[in-house]
């Protein structure tokens, strides 16, 4: 008689997330139950063999099984943690560079405990880290970590976002101005807006080749994550442009979006901003009526 595979799988899975290992004692008892069924132990098997001084062939086999499983669980747990840490480091390379290896290792462990993976795709594992680090890191000088993490996660998502065919310059020029103003515009799936009271775009850029840390980290940022081709980029905007693009993302017409922008800045240079959006493929075309 053998222990059912389903029972082993269930106990094994339940043991992975916590430091406690109830599966070991369960398997010891299960193993003794197997021995009993095969006539190698008496009816007091599990209870008796947990008592000091009681020994037997079944006890030794069960202990060997438990020790072997303990080693496998520890190995598997270590592998899971390493993979989760690697996934976070891939999504948050600038945060890793800022805090260092030791801090990031500790952060990845406590984050995994608070937010166990809900998907087989580890590319989704770090979704809750920006909100988590906001409560995890309380030091005033690191208060921009959460917003920086939000920017990095938006870049990470942009990399995996769907492709979109954008109108060419000639096709845009063929649209009548009055039609364009009354239209709802299609936004590229990779686009994301991030506003922060900190210079997160400059801090991110400082960790790219040739970058330098901003003189004033507490400079407000209005950033738009774009992906003109295959590589995500950051387009820094003024508050008026940020408001206009936010309106477009929410389904407003271009005319209404411009109203939002000019309400913030009467001198807003829409022509220049429009060219930047088109060049970055942030706007891909007109939504169907």
TrEMBL record:
Pfam families: DUF2063. Residues 66-133 form the Putative DNA-binding domain. Signal peptide: none annotated. InterPro entries: DUF2063 (IPR018640), DUF2063_N_sf (IPR044922). Residues 42-61 are annotated as: Disordered. This is Putative DNA-binding domain-containing protein.
């Amino acid at each position: 008689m053998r222990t059912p595979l389903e029972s082993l799988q269930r106990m094994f899975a339940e043991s992975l997330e916590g430091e406690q290992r109830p599966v070991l004692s369960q398997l010891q008892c299960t193993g003794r139950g197997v021995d009993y069924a095969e006539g190698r132990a008496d009816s007091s098997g599990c209870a008796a063999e947990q008592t000091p001084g009681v020994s037997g062939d079944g006890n030794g086999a069960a202990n060997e099984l438990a020790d072997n499983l303990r080693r496998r669980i520890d190995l598997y747990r270590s592998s899971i943690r390493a993979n989760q840490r690697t996934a976070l480091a891939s999504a948050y390379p600038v945060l890793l560079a800022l805090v260092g290896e030791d801090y990031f290792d500790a952060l990845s462990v406590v984050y995994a405990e608070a937010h166990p993976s809900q998907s087989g795709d580890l590319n989704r594992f770090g979704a809750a880290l920006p909100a988590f680090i906001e409560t995890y890191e309380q030091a005033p000088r690191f208060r921009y970590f959460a917003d920086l993490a939000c920017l990095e996660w938006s870049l990470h998502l942009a990399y995996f976002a769907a492709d979109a065919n954008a109108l060419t310059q000639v096709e845009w020029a063929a649209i009548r101005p009055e039609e364009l103003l009354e239209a709802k515009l299609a936004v590229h799936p990779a686009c994301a807006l991030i506003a922060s009271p900190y210079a997160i775009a400059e801090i991110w850029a400082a960790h790219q080749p040739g970058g330098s840390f901003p003189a004033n980290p507490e400079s407000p940022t209005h950033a738009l994550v774009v992906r003109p081709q295959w590589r995500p980029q950051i387009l820094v905007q003024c508050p008026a442009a940020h408001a206009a693009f936010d309106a477009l993302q929410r389904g407003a017409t271009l005319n209404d979006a411009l109203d939002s922008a000019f309400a913030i800045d009467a001198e807003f240079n829409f022509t220049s901003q429009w060219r930047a959006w088109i060049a970055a493929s942030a706007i891909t075309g007109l939504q169907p009526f």
